[in-house]
Write a structure and sequence with these properties.
- By secondary structure, the protein is of the alpha/beta class.
- It folds into 2 domains: about 160 residues, Rossmann fold (3-Layer(aba) Sandwich); about 190 residues, Dehydroquinate synthase-like, alpha domain (Up-down Bundle).
- About 50% of the residues lie in helices and about 10% in strands.
- The strands form 2 sheets. It has a 6-stranded parallel beta sheet, sandwiched between helices. Strands 6-7 form a two-stranded antiparallel sheet.
- The chain is globular, with a radius of gyration of 20 Å.
- It starts with 9 loop residues before the first strand and ends with a helix.
- The model has no long low-confidence stretch (mean pLDDT about 95).
- The protein binds nicotinamide-adenine-dinucleotide.
Length: about 375
């Protein structure tokens, strides 16, 4: 078999390892990219202290599902100050913004030019350090960024070879303050990364190994992290999110993420919850096509069969108070065709092992409507 594996990110994992940030910052000007919640929680001042610099510029205006406008605003500030190092402190929204800002500093134009595919990034000179504060997206170890174009209302991912960060500092202590809802949503996002990477047509042995371990860690820790939020479960989820990110950085995701984009854009469902909504149904459908491969995973997890695995996923959704029916988020029967079309317009839908066309997806949606 042929296989490629490429992941050029130096990963630093462990409680308290944010303290190593200072030795990684280069140049004269550092910019911290973050959001207002993390600013208020004191994360930005803590990271500033660890960076050991006084001349730090802050951009703490990133919103969930970052817009192209926000990215361009941050890039303008970065360009004006000739920034050398960007430190992204936050969840996927912050890290994705920082990736685009770092690239825009070495390339002209606006993010939309690159998101539309009109232009391609050709270089990146700025050092990028990603410090995740959620345990879900794995963005710190992927070459993906996801942006919302407010003018068309479309949220979509883009890939660039210049989106890899130089360093990822994954310090589980930074996730201790996550509220239950964000813990659940980001944990389900990581589960979707791992499971989709595992079953993707583009999967390969290394990504499968990472994905299996990530799924196991999520099945063992997500419930506890939602209920108790204890140190051990937080640590397990941080590792799971990292491994899942590494896995899907090689394979991309599939139909669950394709479905998530309109659910978030149009119906405002948090990203991880949107990815999980159809997971039990799609799992059962994919089992019909790649049952043997899924049995390896199911046995590793200690489940009897695919039905038991699907129920365990539903249990996590219940514990995390995630929506399990489309009607819960205001979707009606007459909305289904539009939802089908916009889900299938995402190219990653084709990486799903079972061929899911309009008819099959409509059936899945009817099944989870109420
Ligand atoms: P997020 O970054 O949008 O953050 C959600 C909320 O949690 C925000 O209000 C934030 O302030 C808050 N928060 C973050 N850390 C916290 C902490 N430690 N304590 C308290 N509150 C905290 O959420 P996310 O799920 O991490 O990221 C979602 C975004 O990432 C979406 O746009 C999604 O499409 C994208 N994404 C990107 C990739 C990738 O590879 N680039 C992968 C998956 C998802």
């Amino acid at each position: 078999m042929d296989m490629n594996f490429f992941l050029p990110v130096k990963v630093i994992f462990g409680n308290g390892r944010i303290r190593e940030l200072g030795s990684l910052v280069v140049g004269n000007r550092t910019m911290i990219v973050s959001d207002s919640v993390l600013l208020e929680l004191g994360f930005v001042s803590e990271v500033k202290e660890e960076a050991g610099r006084t001349d730090i510029i802050e951009f703490c205006e990133v919103e969930p599902n970052p817009s192209c406008e926000t990215v361009d605003r941050a890039a303008k500030i970065g360009r004006e100050h000739s920034v050398d190092t960007i430190v992204a402190v936050g969840g996927g929204s912050v890290m994705d913004t920082a990736k685009a800002v770092a690239c825009l500093m070495s390339n002209t134009g606006k993010i939309k030019d690159y998101l539309d595919g009109t232009r391609t990034f050709t270089s990146r000179k700025v050092r990028l350090i990603c410090v995740p504060t959620t345990s879900g997206t794995g963005s710190e170890v992927t070459n993906v960024g996801v942006y919302t174009d407010k003018s068309s209302g479309v949220k979509k991912p883009m890939v660039s070879e210049f989106f890899w960060s130089d360093f990822a500092i994954v310090d589980p202590e930074l996730t201790f303050s996550l509220p239950k809802g964000v813990t659940a949503s980001t944990g389900l996002d990581a589960l979707a990364h791992a499971i989709e990477s595992y079953w993707a047509k583009s999967s390969q042995p290394v990504s499968e190994s990472l994905a299996i371990r990530a799924i196991d860690l999520i099945m063992k820790n997500l419930r506890r992290a939602c209920i108790d939020g204890d140190k051990e479960s937080r640590e397990g989820l941080s590792m799971a999110s990292l491994l899942a990110g590494m896995a899907f950085s090689q394979t991309r995701t599939t139909i669950l993420h394709a479905i998530s984009f309109p659910l978030t854009n149009v119906y405002g469902v948090p990203h991880g919850f949107a990815c999980a909504l159809a997971m039990p149904e799609v799992l059962k459908l994919n089992y019909k096509v790649i049952g043997e491969k899924l049995d390896i995973l199911i046995r590793y997890l200690g489940f009897e069969d695919v039905g038991e695995f699907a129920v365990a996923i539903e249990d996590l959704m219940i514990v995390g108070e995630a929506p399990r029916k489309l009607s819960e988020i205001g979707i009606r029967e007459e909305d289904l065709d539009g939802l089908v079309d916009s889900s299938l317009s995402s190219p990653i839908a084709k990486l799903n092992p079972a061929n899911i066309g309009r008819k099959e997806l409509r059936e899945i949606f009817e099944h989870i409507l109420q």
